[in-house]
Amino acid sequence: MADSTGAADGARQGSAAEGVRQRNLARILRLAHVEGPLSRAALTETTALNRSTIADLVADLVAAGLVVEHAPDPSRRVGRPSPVVSASAEVVAIAANPEVDALEIAAVALDRSIPVRTRIELDHLLSPAETAELIAATLAEWRSGMLASTRIAGVGLAVPGLVRASDGLVRDAPHLKWTDEPLRDLVAEATGLPVAIGNDASLGTLAEHLFGAARGVDDVVYLNGGASGIGGGLIVHGIAVGGTGGYAGEFGQNRPGIAAGADRRADAGVLEDEVSRARLLAALRLRHADEPTLAAALSASADDAVHDEVERQRRILSTALANAVNVLNPSVVVLGGFLATIAARDLDGLVAAVSAQAMHANAEGLSIRPAALAGDRLLFGAAEAAFAELLRDPLG
């Protein structure tokens, strides 16, 4: 009995030690991924682990191909040189964002570089099956070329619609006309890879919080303006808020408060019916445009009708943001896509318009910022979802 008890105690201790090691490996890999290249000395200081433990952990991650070590900066002449640890560029996630006008696909590496990407322009609405087929075909092409030497961790999908957190089912992507579609499973079957899926704006929120305009900010409201409308995401006390089913942040479906009746374009419409990329394109007489093209066209236009449409949308957006500020009291509001473009016309003026309609205390110190990751925000967010399991258990 004593031998049996001792063996059980030893097994528990071994399991506990392995658990600690896994968490420490995950911590080192996440630091290299999120913070960028760090010296071993910086890792020692940040984690409070000793130098020999850091050396062992880094060696394991190097052997697994997840990080690389570089010689220290030769200009650093004070103290003992410390090797620099960087996330590997040879480990990638495939990130995809299906939209009503295009399918964008990119390989995003652990070091946050993007070695290859494509935008497939469309003249029809994608079906879930076609989306899976296009991703699989693109991946097969890349695997025989640009990604031939890489390890692919998985696929991340940023979808403009409601995605059920429990099983990844796309409950409703109204602009794509998808209802209860098992897109995650279709892509997994087509590619043979693990697949993570989420709402595009929620994943954009994650990316901007980790790497962009909301980095280091604990209370954030994010609104994303895309071809399919307006979505959003929330960070409260540093934690992403998804709600019961994962559907939180659908600001675009709220009924906007429109002070001037002449500003209304859609009777009984929701916010995304009034503040709309399609309306901007119509004013510019354009059929299609990616984000940089739309921004450049708006900036170059001297047409009064274009100016008036931008100002109309800014007025309605300011009221919607004031409502969000009153309810959530964020310190930062981040705007992505075409919302960032129309906000940038006069960012201080937008802050003033929001503050004028919000409760004074709630708007104190409010900052409104364009998404720092610009057109890459949804791809970075999708990749982060695909990397999640690897970052949790690097050697699993």
From TrEMBL:
Protein name per UniProt: Sugar kinase
Q: Does Kinase show up as a keyword for this record?
A: yes
Q: Which Pfam families match?
A: ROK
* InterPro entries membership: ATPase_NBD (IPR043129), ROK (IPR000600), WH-like_DNA-bd_sf (IPR036388), WH_DNA-bd_sf (IPR036390)
Q: List keywords of the entry alphabetically.
A: Kinase, Transferase
* Similarity remark: Belongs to the ROK (NagC/XylR) family.
Could you state a single Gene Ontology molecular function term? kinase activity
Q: Residues of the signal sequence? A: none
